[in-house]
Structure formats: C-alpha cells, structure tokens
C-alpha cells in the first residue's frame, strides 16, 4: 500500500454507498453481531444520515475505498453530531486511515459550528479507543444507546 498522502478523504458520493455498507458489515460481523439498527442506517444512509444534515466520509485510494465513517446530525442538546459507522478495510488497518477519516469528520463538524461530537464504541476495540483518546475524546456516561455492543461512550468538546 502507498503512503497515506495518496489517500483522499471524500464526502458522500453514491458510488461509494456499497463500500460504506460492506466495510461496516465486515467489521461488525468480525467482532460483534450485526443489529437491526445497523442494517437500517447502512441500507438507508442517504435518508438517515445525509438528508438529516450529516455526512459520510470515504478514504479512497485509486478508486478503492479503504475506510468510511459518518457524522450523524443530532437534534438534542446533548451533542451536535455522532461520529458513527467508522470502518477500515483489514488491508488498510494500522496505516492511519481511521485517523484521517476522524480528523476530516471533526474538521467538517467544526466548520458547521458543532461544539460537541459524541461516539459509541466497545472497549474490546482498543486501537479505536486509543485513536479517539488521541483525538481528544473523553469517556462520558448517561446517554442511552440503541446498540447492544456499546460499553463505552465518548465526547469531544470542540473549541469554537
């Protein structure tokens, strides 16, 4: 694989819709069980994410999607966006793709005036947790999750 400087992070493009779903199903199945809410969000990404003011990011190298993530707009005062559905192809893991995706998503949310970005994860995904901590996310409690696999919630407070 080439350097990460060859990787382009692009916002939503329907031609990458299948990759968004496939990469997510692949990683979720690898560690957990795919839940009904996963299918709903992945099969109807435009409706659930884009149409509601969110964004989907793809890390692309030579038209090959190496990783994806989404920012889901939230309409409560708890937070502005949820960083969700981050998945990196096994062939690209450990090469900084997740970091590039997360940084692009945070920058995008910040440009939209967001002050808080929330995420849900699982502590058995140590590389992901370390990545989130490196980006400034801190563990929080008290927001209910619609996923069985969630055992950690984190929040990033952006300096506006």
From TrEMBL:
CDD domains: NAT_SF (cd04301). InterPro entries: Acyl_CoA_acyltransferase, GNAT_dom, NAT_camello-type. GO terms for molecular function: N-acetyltransferase activity. Residues 7-159 form the N-acetyltransferase domain. Keywords: Transferase. The keyword Transferase applies. Pfam families: Acetyltransf_1. PANTHER family: GNAT FAMILY N-ACETYLTRANSFERASE, LD18367P. This is MarR family transcriptional regulator.
């Amino acid at each position: 694989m080439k350097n990460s400087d060859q990787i382009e992070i692009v916002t939503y493009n329907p031609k990458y819709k299948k990759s968004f779903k496939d990469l997510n199903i692949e990683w979720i199945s690898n560690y957990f069980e795919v839940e009904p809410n996963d299918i709903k969000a992945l099969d109807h990404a435009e409706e659930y994410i884009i149409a509601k003011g969110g964004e989907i990011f793809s890390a692309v190298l030579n038209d090959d999607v190496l990783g994806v993530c989404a920012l889901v707009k939230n309409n409560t005062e708890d937070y502005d966006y949820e960083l969700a559905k981050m998945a990196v192809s096994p062939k690209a893991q450990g090469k900084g793709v997740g970091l590039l995706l997360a940084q692009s998503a945070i920058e995008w949310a910040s440009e939209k005036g967001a002050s808080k970005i929330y995420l849900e994860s699982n502590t058995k995904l140590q590389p992901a947790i370390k990545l989130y901590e490196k980006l400034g996310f801190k563990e929080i409690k008290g927001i209910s999750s619609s996923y069985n696999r969630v055992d950690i919630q984190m929040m990033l407070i952006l300096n506006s």
